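Ticket #4471: structure output looks truncated?

Reporter: J.K.
Steps to reproduce: submitted the chain below (286 residues) through the standard prediction queue, then opened the result file.
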Amino acid sequence: MKYGLVLEGGAMRGMFTAGVTDVLMENGIDFDGAVGVSAGAGFGCNYKSKQPGRVIRYNTRFARDKRYCSLKSWLTTGDLFGADFIYRQIPDSLDPFDGETFANDPMEFYAVCTDVETGKAVYHRFKTASPGEIEWLRASASMPLASRIVEAGGKKLLDGGIADSIPLRFMESVGYERNVVILTQPRGFVKKPTKSRHLVAAAFRKYPDFVRAFKNRPKMYNEELRYVSAAEADGRALVIAPDQPLPVGHIEHDPDVLREVYRIGRAAANARLDEIRAFLGTEENV
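Returned output as attached by the reporter:
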């Protein structure tokens, strides 16, 4: 049996996910594969590189740094979250990403992106942490309007959450029979149409399939939540979600807020460690 990890996105709500995954890593819980969407991919890759603590460390260190996230970055580069700073300077030198461990670790790791030309999800499996591969992480987390279109693998790509926000079906389709799913919204959350859909429709009028996918996202997301709940009831999924809405938005410059969301994630994981171990099979996964 193959065990998988599914990581929803949510920008800085991803600090909850980082808290959960750090506890799992610290307790020696391994997975055969993982898939991340947006921040779930950008933060979740540290599971494969075996670097607990890295996400909270660099996010709090650079929370107020204009190179990390600022209006100036958006106006000068087209990316609200500075692409060169986040995907090159930080992992290369400021808080090094262990690309060698990432490449050699046997866990499969996928990132979800949305193909701007088709409006469909693209699932990229990583082999290395080369600059070309890292572009897939950047693409997965590139929100429309706040980011430029990213080109990777001959495709034009943006935020994976537009086409597949909670890719449990995907993991099951590639052979993962039991999956731990980490959500960044509380149970009972219902996604509603976003006010930015009209701006997206205007900005991406050359890509009608992408606009259609963006407008359909609330319906898709809510249906995926129902699928996750059914899988949980059937014993195929174990779901970890915050008990209430997380006290953070898509952007957060206060390190203390990030630490609090991270703490909430750690507490959620610690409270369910025995349950997680039992779900995954103690002998094989501890």
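Triage note (M.O.): checked the attachment and the full token line is present. The mean pLDDT is 96.
Status: closed, working as intended.
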